[in-house]
Automatic annotation (TrEMBL):
Region (Uridylyltransferase): 1-331
Record's catalysed reaction(s): [protein-PII]-uridylyl-L-tyrosine + H2O = [protein-PII]-L-tyrosine + UMP + H(+); [protein-PII]-L-tyrosine + UTP = [protein-PII]-uridylyl-L-tyrosine + diphosphate
Source taxonomy: Bacteria, Bacillati, Actinomycetota, Actinomycetes, Kitasatosporales
Segments of this protein annotated with the region Disordered: 1-29
Name of this chain's protein: Bifunctional uridylyltransferase/uridylyl-removing enzyme
The EC number(s) this enzyme carries: 2.7.7.59, 3.1.4.-
Organism: Streptomyces bugieae
GO molecular function, one term: [protein-PII] uridylyltransferase activity
Length: 830
C-alpha cells in the first residue's frame, strides 16, 4: 500500500467487516466443498480453487468500486496465486492497482473492503495498493516484488491497467536481467545454505529448501529473461509432485506449512495414495533432484552467457591466459574436449560406435574439475540405449569408472548429472534400488545413493594407503548396495556386489575381495567400539572374517571413508584410534605374531594405575576430571583437526555391586551426557580388584561440575543415601511436560553369541535418553550379573552399548540365562 493510502486508511476496517460475511457467505461453503471433493485433486483442484477465489474477489471489487463511484482501478493476483495455483492453505498475493486519480480516502476504504473479508475467513494475505509506476519502482527496489509481478494476472477492474503492468514488468525484467540474475542466484544459494538440500532432508521444507518450489519459480524467472532456459525433461512433473505433496500436507495438518515433518509423513503418504512414508520421501527426493539438476544446468548457462556479454572475445582470452579466439577446444581425452568451461564431445566423437565414451567423458570432466555438458550426456545416453556396454565390461570401461571415482569431490556433480539423465541405471542396473532411498537415521547426512558416492570421494583421499586403489574405490561405491533389499544389507550387498564386480570386469579373485569388503564393511568399527579388544576371541573373529593383511588394509580404509561420508557423529579421532588399534592387533594375528607382544602396550596408563592404587588404598572412589581437545593418536587415521571431547573423566572404585548404575546416575544428575565410556577391572598389587571407568562426557548446558561434588555424590550413591532413581524419575517427569514426544524405535537388547570365551556380551541399542546408562546398569545389577567390561558409544541420537557380563562365580552365562538378562534389560528400558 502506498504511503498516501496508508496515512488515510485509519480505522476504516469497520465498513469492510460489516459487509464481509454477506460478501463471503457463499465462497467459504463452496471452498469447503471443493477441498472435500475427493474426485478433484492435484492441479485440477488448485486451478478450481483459484477460479473460485477469482470470482469471489472480482465480485468484491466490482461491487464496492461501483458503490463508491471509483473507476481506474484493477485487482491483480501475483506470485503463486497469479500462476493460478492455490494450495488449500496458501496465502493470497494481491495488488490493487489504480491510475492515481482516485481520492486517497475512497481508495483506502475500497482496499479495506477487499482485505478484511479475506482476513475474516482466516486466510493469510500479502497486499499492496499502487499505481503502475509505483509498482514498477517497487520492483526496481525489491527483487522479490519484481519476481512476483512476472506472474501478475488480471482479476477484475480495468484490464488496461493490468496489461500495462504486466508488459512493463516483463520489459523491465529482461532489461535488468544481466544485473538481477546474479542477485537471484545469490538469493537461491543463501537459501540453500540456510534450509539445506530437499533431496537429503528427513524433514524437508518443500518450498524453501534447495530443489524446492522456490527454485522452480526462480527457473521460470530465468526463462522469462530470455537469457537461458532450464532443461525441461521432468521439470514440470517434479514441480507438480511437490505442489501435490504440499496440498496433502495442508489438508492433513490444517495449517499453512511447507515442512514435511516426520510425524505427518504417514498421513500425507496415505492422502496421496503412496505406500508409506519412505516411498513418499523417495518420490519427493526424486522431484527435488530433478529441480536441483535443472537449476545447476541453468545457472551454469546463465553464467556463461553473462560472461560472454561482459567481456569481448580477445580480452576474455587475455584474462584467462589464452590467446585463442572464442570457441577454442582443448582436448581432455579421446573424443572429449573442453569448451567454454565445460567438458563436451569432440566434433569427431561417435558415441553410437564407442559405448565407453560416456565413462571416458565423465572421468575426464571429473579429473579436470569441469561440469559435463548436458548435450554430451544426452547423446551418450541415447547411444547406450541402442548399444549398451558389453558384459563383462571391457578393460577401458572399468579403468574409466575407477578414474571417475578417484577424482574426489569433482566426482559428485558429474555423477549427479549422469544420474539425472538416466545414464547410471543403464550402466549399473542395481543402482535403481538405492536411488533417492532415505535413511531414517539422524547420523546419516545423505540418501543411500549419495552416501555411496560420498564414500568413494572420501576413499579417493585414502588411495595412497592401499595396494589396490581400484578395489577400494569400487567397494566404496557398492558397500551399501544391499540397502534396497530385505534383510541384513551387508549380507544382501555381498551377493549383489559379487555379481556387479564380475559384470564390471574384475576377475574371480578381485571379485571375492570386493564381496568380502562389502560383507564386512561395518566389522572394524563395530568390533572396535563394542567389543573387548583384550579378548583373544575378538581379534580372532576379525582375522577369520578378513583372511589376509591386504584385505584388512582395504577394509581399514573403507571403514574410515564410510564413516566420514556418513556424518560428523560417525567418526572421530577416538573411534579412529580404536579402529587403528584393532587393525594392528588383527594384522599381528594374521602375520602369526605372538599374542603377548600385542597385548603388552595395552595395559592401564600410568595415571590409571595411580588412581586404581589410590582407590584400593583408601577404599573409596577416586576421580580425575579435565577438559581437553583430543589430538589423534600417532597411529590413528587423519581427521580434519582436533576433536573437542568436552570432559575426560576417570573414576576408580574398589570392586563392589552397583558401581556402574551409581556412577552413571551421578553423571545424569549433574547433566553430563555420556558420549563414550569403557569399564575394566584392574587388580593393583595387594589392594583387591578395582573398577576403572573411563568416561568421555559433555555438559548438556551450563558449566562443568567440580570433581569434589561428583565424588561426594558418588560416595552417597554407593552407600544408598542418595536416591538416584527417585531424583531421575522426578526430573524425567518435569522434562516430559516441557518437550514434545520423541518418535524413536523401541530399544533392542540382544546377546552377541560367540563374541567372547570368558564372558557373555549383551548388546543394547536405544535412543540416547536421559539417564539411559543408569537404567541399564540397574537392570544388570537386578539380574545379579557382574559387569567385567563395558563399551559405550553414542552416534547422534542413538546409543550402542556392549556389556561383558559373567555370573557371580566369574563364568559366562548359559544361553538361557543370557537371553533372560537381555529380556530383563529390554523390559527395563521400555
Amino acid at each position: 500500500m502506498t504511503d498516501s493510502v496508508e496515512d488515510t486508511a485509519g480505522t476504516a476496517a469497520a465498513s469492510g467487516q460489516d459487509e464481509g460475511p454477506a460478501d463471503g457467505s457463499g465462497y467459504p461453503a463452496a471452498r469447503v466443498r471443493l477441498l472435500q471433493d475427493e474426485k478433484t485433486t492435484g492441479p485440477d483442484r488448485r486451478a478450481a480453487l483459484a477460479r473460485l477465489t477469482d470470482e469471489w474477489l472480482a465480485g468484491l471489487l466490482n461491487r464496492h468500486a461501483t458503490a463508491a463511484g471509483l473507476s481506474g482501478t484493477a485487482l491483480v493476483a501475483v506470485g503463486g496465486y497469479g500462476r493460478g495455483e492455490l494450495s488449500p492453505r496458501s496465502d493470497l498475493d494481491l495488488l490493487l492497482l489504480h491510475d492515481g486519480r482516485a481520492d486517497p480516502r475512497a481508495l483506502a476504504a475500497l482496499a479495506d473492503r477487499l482485505w478484511y473479508p479475506v482476513w475474516d475467513l482466516g486466510m493469510d494475505l500479502d497486499h499492496s495498493v499502487r499505481t503502475p509506476a509505483e509498482a514498477r519502482r517497487a520492483a526496481r527496489d525489491d527483487l522479490k516484488v519484481q519476481l512476483g509481478l512476472l506472474d501478475a494476472r488480471h482479476l477484475a477492474g480495468d484490464p488496461e491497467l493490468s496489461t500495462r503492468l504486466r508488459s512493463t514488468a516483463y520489459a523491465d525484467w529482461r532489461e535488468s536481467a544481466p544485473k538481477r540474475l546474479p542477485e537471484l542466484h545469490a538469493l537461491c544459494q543463501e537459501r540453500a545454505e540456510r534450509q539445506g538440500e530437499l533431496q537429503y532432508l528427513l524433514e524437508p521444507d518443500l518450498k524453501e529448501a534447495r530443489g524446492g518450489l522456490r527454485d522452480a519459480t526462480a527457473l521460470r524467472a530465468v526463462a522469462a529473461s530470455w537469457l537461458a532456459d532450464a532443461p525441461r525433461g521432468g521439470l514440470e512433473a517434479a514441480r507438480t509432485l511437490l505442489l501435490d505433496t504440499r496440498d496433502a500436507l495442508h489438508l492433513t495438518t490444517g495449517r499453512a506449512t511447507d515442512r514435511l515433518s516426520l510425524q505427518e509423513q504417514d498421513q500425507v503418504a496415505a492422502a496421496l495414495g503412496v505406500l508409506d512414508a519412505d516411498a513418499l520421501l523417495r518420490q519427493t527426493y526424486e522431484a527435488a533432484r530433478t529441480i536441483s539438476y535443472a537449476a545447476d544446468v541453468t545457472w551454469r548457462e546463465v553464467g556463461r552467457v553473462l560472461r560472454a556479454r561482459a567481456v569481448k572475445p580477445v580480452l576474455r582470452g587475455l584474462l584467462t591466459g589464452r590467446t585463442a579466439a572464442k570457441g577454442e577446444r582443448s582436448p581432455l581425452a579421446e573424443g572429449v574436449v573442453e569448451l567454454d568451461g565445460e567438458a563436451v564431445l569432440a566434433r569427431t566423437a561417435r558415441p553410437e560406435r564407442d559405448p565407453v565414451l560416456v565413462l571416458r567423458a565423465a572421468a575426464a570432466a571429473a579429473q579436470a574439475g569441469l561440469p559435463l555438458a548436458t548435450a554430451a550426456i544426452r547423446r551418450c545416453a541415447s547411444a547406450l540405449a541402442t548399444r549398451p556396454l558389453p558384459e563383462p565390461w571391457p578393460a577401458e570401461a572399468l579403468e574409466q569408472l575407477v578414474t571417475l571415482l578417484g577424482a574426489g569431490a569433482p566426482t559428485v556433480p558429474v555423477w549427479e548429472a549422469l544420474e539425472a539423465e538416466g545414464v547410471i541405471p543403464r550402466l549399473l542396473p542395481d543402482w535403481e534400488r538405492v536411488r533417492c532411498r532415505p535413511q531414517r537415521n539422524p547420523v546419516h547426512t545423505w540418501t543411500v545413493d549419495r552416501h555411496l558416492v560420498e564414500t568413494a570421494v572420501r576413499a579417493a583421499a585414502l588411495t595412497r594407503r592401499v595396494h589396490r586403489p581400484d578395489l577400494l574405490l569400487v567397494a566404496a561405491l557398492l558397500h551399501d548396495i544391499g540397502k534396497g533389499w530385505p534383510g541384513d544389507h551387508s549380507v544382501a550387498g555381498e551377493t549383489i556386489a559379487r555379481d556387479m564386480a564380475a559384470r564390471l570386469g574384475f576377475d574371480a579373485r578381485d571379485t571375492a575381495v570386493i564381496a568380502t569388503l562389502v560383507r564386512h564393511h561395518l566389522l572394524l568399527v563395530e568390533t572396535a567400539t563394542r567389543r573387548d579388544l583384550d579378548d583373544p576371541e575378538t581379534v580372532g573373529a576379525v582375522a577369520d572374517a578378513v583372511g589376509t593383511t591386504r584385505t584388512l588394509e582395504l577394509l581399514h580404509a573403507l571403514t574410515e571413508a564410510d564413516a566420514l561420508a556418513t556424518g560428523p557423529a560417525a567418526w572421530s579421532a577416538w573411534r579412529g584410534g580404536l579402529v587403528a588399534d584393532l587393525v594392528k592387533r588383527v594384522a599381528a594375528r594374521l602375520a602369526g605374531e605372538p599374542e603377548a607382544e600385542q597385548r603388552g602396550a595395552d595395559g592401564p596408563t600410568a595415571e590409571q594405575e595411580r588412581l586404581a592404587m589410590e582407590a584400593g588404598r583408601t577404599g573409596g572412589p577416586v576421580l580425575a576430571l579435565r577438559t581437553r581437545a583430543e589430538a589423534p593418536a600417532e597411529d590413528a587415521p587423519e581427521t580434519d583437526g582436533p576433536e573437542p571431547v568436552g570432559v575426560e573423566l576417570l573414576i576408580a572404585v574398589p570392586d563392589q555391586p552397583g558401581v556402574l548404575p551409581a556412577a552413571a546416575g551421578v553423571l545424569a544428575l549433574h547433566r553430563l551426557a555420556v558420549r563414550a565410556a569403557d569399564l575394566q577391572l584392574l587388580d593393583p598389587i595387594g589392594d583387591g580388584p578395582v573398577l576403572l571407568l573411563s568416561w568421555r562426557v559433555a555438559a548438556e548446558y551450563g558449566s562443568l561440575p567440580e570433581a569434589d561434588r561428583l565424588r561426594a555424590d558418588l560416595v552417597r550413591a554407593l552407600d544408598g543415601s542418595l536416591d538416584i532413581p527417585g531424583r531421575l524419575a522426578e526430573r524425567e517427569r518435569a522434562y516430559a511436560r516441557r518437550v514434545r514426544t520423541v518418535h524413536a524405535p523401541p530399544p533392542r537388547v540382544t546377546v552377541a553369541t560367540g563374541s567372547s570365551r570368558t564372558a557373555t556380551v549383551i548388546e543394547v541399542r536405544a535412543h540416547d535418553a536421559h539417564g539411559l546408562l543408569h537404567r541399564i546398569g540397574r537392570a544388570l545389577e537386578t539380574a545379579r550379573v557382574a559387569v567385567r567390561s563395558a563399551h559405550i558409544s553414542t552416534l547422534g541420537a542413538d546409543a550402542v552399548d556392549a556389556f561383558y557380563v559373567t555370573s557371580t562365580d566369574g563364568a559366562p552365562l548359559t544361553d538361557a540365562a543370557a537371553h533372560e538378562v537381555a529380556s530383563a534389560v529390554e523390559a527395563a528400558l521400555r
